């Protein structure tokens, strides 16, 4: 759901940039506080892996394809929604500057949708679902699906404010496609979380309760 | 299973990312993504659940300006370099991402010490 520059007028793009910069500022403070020799490889591998997997579009029927966004994954593994903001911002900068995937003036909106909304919805719905079902992988899958869907709906509203999509048809189309694309997000998030739990359980935030202390 | 040390974890993680990216060059779907499909739907080029037309331009619905042209559009080095160009482009992307993250995180870690 990388928005290209032509989809949002400049002044609205600037407004999303201001929102994004506030969260980026907090995420930088999160990174400065949390950084240590054990966290650096996790953040690096998550960023490189999210970049790679975002290039891998999988067909989802209805003439559409989708890929993992990774905000929920980053937030759950590192135990903070600001981890998602930090990692997705860096990935989106490389994608836009080097590959033209997602615009420059609209990058604030892309950071808002995929990093901020993806990270916050993923993180908080993970903990809400976990308290109900007790299974971390099922919880992560559901949270990631929801993060994908809510981000897409936010994107549809932004498109309507921009006058690019009509509101209701935009919400219906974005909602339908991302309800299906979200299944990719859910399954891959759960699988990567379980791979991490096997290879380096100590690296997963203890707050996520994936690994018993 | 033995726990991987930090260095092995980083190397293994990057190797997995490179494999995923190379597989993506060969097997990624060329269908429009969710946002592009929605753009085709609101333009009347595509029905909600129907196939996407090959020649439709999802970005035609955008009325704003786009001034930036990236050096490697569409994760490729251009038509003539084909698959090899695609592989070089995604691997370059992984290492630029990695360099950016490692640079910034090491800066923070050093600032803390």
What does this structure look like?
The complex is a heterodimer of chains A (213) and B (113). Chain A is 72% helix and 2% strand. Chain A is built from seven helices and two strands; from the N terminus they run ααββααααα. In chain A, strand 1 and strand 2 form a beta hairpin. Chain B has 113 residues and is mainly alpha-helical. Chain B folds into two domains: 70 residues, no CATH class; 36 residues, no CATH class. Helix content of chain B is 55%, strand content 0%. In chain B, helix 1 runs antiparallel to helix 3. Chain B is elongated. Chain B starts with 5 loop residues before the first helix and ends with a helix. The chains are: A mainly alpha (213), B mainly alpha (113).
Radius of gyration of chain B: 19 Å
Strand count, sense and barrel status of the largest sheet of chain A are: 2 strands, antiparallel
Largest sheet data of chain B: none
Large-scale geometry of chain B: elongated
Q: How much helix is in the residues of chain A? A: over 70%
Mean pLDDT of chain A: 95
Oligomerization category of the chains in this entry: heterodimer
The total number of structural domains of chain B is 2
Please state how the strands of the largest beta sheet of chain A are arranged side by side.
1-2
The top level CATH class name of chain A: Mainly Alpha
CATH architect. name of chain A: Orthogonal Bundle
Number of strands of chain B: 0
Structural class of chain A: mainly alpha
Order of helices and strands of chain B: HHH
Low-confidence stretches of chain B: none
End-to-end Cα distance of chain A:
37 Å
Helix content of chain B: 40-55%
């Amino acid at each position: 759901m990388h928005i290209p520059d032509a989809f949002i007028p400049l002044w609205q793009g600037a407004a999303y940039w201001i929102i994004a910069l506030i969260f980026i500022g907090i995420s930088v403070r999160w990174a400065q506080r949390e950084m240590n020799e054990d966290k650096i490889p996790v953040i690096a591998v998550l960023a490189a892996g999210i970049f790679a997997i975002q290039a891998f579009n999988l067909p989802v029927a209805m003439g559409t394809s989708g890929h993992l966004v990774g905000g929920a994954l980053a937030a759950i593994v590192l135990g903070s929604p600001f981890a998602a903001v930090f990692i997705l911002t860096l990935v989106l900068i490389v994608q836009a500057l080097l590959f033209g995937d997602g615009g420059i003036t609209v990058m604030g909106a892309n950071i808002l949708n995929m990093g901020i909304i993806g990270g916050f919805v993923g993180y908080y719905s993970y903990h809400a679902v976990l308290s109900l079902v007790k299974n971390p992988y099922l919880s992560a899958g559901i949270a990631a699906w929801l993060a994908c869907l809510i981000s897409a709906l936010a994107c549809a509203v932004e498109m309507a404010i921009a006058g690019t999509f009509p509101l209701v048809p935009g919400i219906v189309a974005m909602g339908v496609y991302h309800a299906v694309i979200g299944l990719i997000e859910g399954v891959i998030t759960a699988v990567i979380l379980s791979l991490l739990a096997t290879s380096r359980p100590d690296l997963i935030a203890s707050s996520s309760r994936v690994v018993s202390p | 299973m033995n726990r991987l040390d930090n260095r092995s974890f980083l190397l293994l993680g990057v190797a997995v990312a490179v494999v995923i990216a190379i597989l993506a060059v060969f097997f990624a779907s060329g269908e429009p993504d969710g946002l592009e499909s929605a753009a085709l739907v609101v333009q009347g080029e595509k029905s909600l659940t129907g196939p996407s037309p090959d020649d439709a331009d999802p970005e035609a619905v955008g009325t704003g300006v786009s001034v930036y042209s990236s050096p490697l559009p569409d994760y490729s080095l251009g038509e003539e370099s084909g698959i090899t160009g695609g592989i070089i482009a995604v691997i370059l992307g992984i290492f630029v991402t990695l360099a950016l993250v490692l640079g910034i995180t090491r800066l923070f870690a050093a600032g803390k010490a």
